[in-house]
Amino acid sequence: MLVERLVIEKFRNFSQLNLELAPRINMVCGANGSGKTSLLEAIYCLGFGRSFRTHQIKQVVQDNQDAFTLFAQLRESTGKLADDSDVGVTEAVHKIGYRRFRSGEAQIKVDGEVEKRFSALARLVPVQLMTPESVELITGGPKLRRQFMDWGLFHVEQSFYAGWSAYVRLLKQRNALLRQGQHHRQDGAYWDHQLAAAGEQVAAARVSYLDGLNALLNQYCQRFLPQYDFRFKLNHGWNKDEQALLESFQAKLDVDRKQGFTSSGPHKAEWQIKVDGIDARERLSRGQLKLLVSALRLVQAEDYKIRRGESCILLVDDLPAELDEQNQETLCNALKESGSQVFITTIDESKIKSHFSAAETQLFHVEHGTI
Ligand SMILES: Nc1ncnc2c1ncn2[C@@H]1O[C@H](COP(=O)(O)OP(=O)(O)OP(=O)(O)O)[C@@H](O)[C@H]1O
Ligand SMILES: [Mg+2]
Q1: 33 CB near ligand 1 (under 6 Å)
Q2: Alpha-carbon distances, residue 148 vs 43, 110, 190, 272, 337 (angstroms)
Q3: How many A from CA of 349 to the centre of ligand 2?
Q4: Which residue puts its alpha carbon closest to atom 30 of ligand 1?
Q5: 82-128 pLDDT, tens per residue?
Q6: Which of 85-94, 213-222, 254-263 has the largest mean confidence?
């Protein structure tokens, strides 16, 4: 998937922008505060419906305006093989629009049709983001790591979204019963069975997804951090190797009743990266963590490409930050070889320009919200 045209209105310091974008490398350069990250943020919003910098949508809407509007023309080419040979490729163009008001209200359009759910738009915009803050994927809370798995499953496993939504609905139901002290009276056991069945499916999908990523992870880390062996270790949210989920619900029922919520299950799942058997947080330097997270994003993009037959859109904010010259080159080469449309921001283009050929690179200079 690639963004051919992007229109941005009333978004951060951009009043109005209309950009024609390159299919491969888009390099965005400019001084501090010029709008580089905001450009990536706009593309990210099309894939996620929200910003990666704030949960408050009103911060993203331009000062003194009611709403921001994003419009993009996308080109989809499915059927590409992993080696990029183009046997049986079919192309399609999609036009998408996303308006978000300060109040939070959203308007979504896909190919001229009004959509109620953001997921209709998200499916068309597979975005991977790398920023200096991305190391939080490893160092931060478990929610980010659950989102990592679920992003992948949403895009590559069509049935996952419905299964996960069903689980969340049932979980709310069970939690409400627990909170109101009604679990023992109002068919608590029935809801436990339903929730456990949905949860086991979610867990099984995650196991097979991370198993698939494991092999690719070591392949990528071979180039970034060749001295180590990397492995995902999945924590299912309950002791899955010894108990069925239903048994876990039953064993923890007294605690859950006391707390008023369900304390075990796939909503508590997360993963770790083991580096030569040791938690990556304990082992790697800051720059090495950045390389690991970049590898994780590229691995997800590669898996998407293998399974969907097309590329993700890669966003890299402040690429040179925290990386030595050798590693900047390694990352640039990996981005190039991904075959994806890539957006890279940097304050000083001279550092990384030489890693890309002029033919595949489009340079954008940002200055006070204009390009
Ligand atoms: N809601 C808003 N309305 C108007 N301007 C805003 C809004 N939010 C942020 N800005 C301004 O937008 C500008 C662009 O910020 P951005 O983070 O994109 O800059 P940048 O080019 O990435 O800078 P840096 O190199 O420091 O990372 C900043 O000057 C910021 O103050
Ligand atoms: Mg920035």
Answers
A1: yes
A2: 18, 25, 31, 12, 22
A3: 14
A4: 33
A5: 555 556 778 899 999 999 999 999 999 999 999 999 999 999 999 99
A6: 254-263
Q: pLDDT tens, 322-350?
A: 999 999 999 999 999 999 999 999 999 99
**Residue 199 CA, ligand 1 centroid: distance in Å:** 42
Average pLDDT score over residue span 126-136: 97
**135-311 CATH pick, 2.40.30.110, 1.20.1050.90, 1.10.10.10, 3.30.479.30:** 1.20.1050.90
Strand order in the sheet with 361-366: 127-130, 313-316, 341-346, 25-30, 361-366
Q: Which ligand is nearest to the CA of 32?
A: 1
Residue 9's contacts (CB-CB under 8 Å, 6 or more residues apart) are 15, 16, 17, 68, 69, 70
CATH code assigned to 1-126+313-371: 3.40.50.300
Give the pLDDT of residue 215: 86
Where does CATH 3.40.50.300 sit in the chain?
Answer: 1-126+313-371
Cβ of 12 below 6 Å from ligand 1: yes
**The pLDDT value given to residue 71:** 98
Instruction: Tell how far the Cα of 33 is from the centroid of ligand 1, in angstroms.
Output: 5
11 CA from centroid of ligand 1 (Å): 10
Listed residues: CB within 5 A of ion ligand 2: 37
Q: Which ligand is nearest to the CA of 34?
A: 1
Q: What is the pLDDT of residue 158?
A: 85
Specify the long-range contacts of residues 162-169, CB closer than 8 Å, at least 24 apart.
163/198, 163/201, 163/202, 163/205, 164/202, 166/198, 167/195, 167/198, 167/199, 167/201, 167/202, 167/266, 167/267, 168/267
The response to whether residue 350 sits with its C-beta less than 6 Å from ligand 1 reads no
Which pLDDT band, with edges at 50, 70 and 90, does 251 fall under? very high
Write out the residue limits of the CATH 1.20.1050.90 domain(s) in the chain.
135-311
